[in-house]
Design goal:
5-stranded mixed β-sheet, 175 residues, alpha/beta, 4 helices, 27% strand, 10 strands, single chain
């Protein structure tokens, strides 16, 4: 169980990209780049209060430890546990940059006035989307997490790529 974050350390983005390509072999065009925040579109309809609190704490800790917005890092907890936080993941779809993982972090950065963010970008994903591309104006704050089908426009259960689940598992980080 994670406790309070004691310290943050930057994590090598080249290792993240290498592991990403290894674990998602369908994607041949995967890069780590800096993007204008205003050019990234959300896929979700909602952000959740509890998850935003963690994103805000992480954002301020990243500033404290001079970690650039979106740069991967390791959280060290006061109980000794470690957790790697990868860059937000976006896909190039329909001529737009679509946010697929990192919704609460990017929402927090936008509210804080951050202009540029480092992301992992996938250019050739053969996977379907979980829903239609959304706009930040349509994103609402919710106190409780809603069922997944209520978080997308025209929800497609076959479109959940599992970036979050996979990147947060121990399997992803085995070399």
């Amino acid at each position: 169980m994670r406790m309070n974050v004691k310290h943050l350390y930057p994590y090598d983005y080249k290792t993240v990209i290498s592991l990403f390509k290894k674990n998602f072999p369908l994607f041949s065009q995967v890069f780590y780049k800096e993007f204008n925040v205003c050019e990234i579109y959300p896929s979700c309809l909602h952000v959740y209060s509890e998850r935003l609190l963690h994103a805000k704490r992480s954002f301020f800790l990243c500033r404290k430890y001079s970690i650039k917005p979106g740069e991967p890092y390791i959280e060290i907890y006061d109980n000794g546990a470690k957790h790697i936080v990868v860059s937000p993941i976006i896909e190039y779809r329909e001529g737009k940059l679509l946010l697929c993982d990192g919704m609460h972090r990017l929402f927090t950065m936008r509210k804080a006035g951050i202009q540029k963010v480092y992301c992992i970008i996938v250019y050739d994903s053969p996977l379907p989307l979980a829903g239609k591309i959304n706009s930040w104006d349509n994103v609402s704050l919710e106190d409780r997490q809603l069922p997944v089908k209520e978080n997308f426009i025209d929800y497609n259960p076959n479109g959940l790529t599992g970036y979050s689940k996979f990147c947060n598992s121990g399997l992803f980080w085995r070399r």
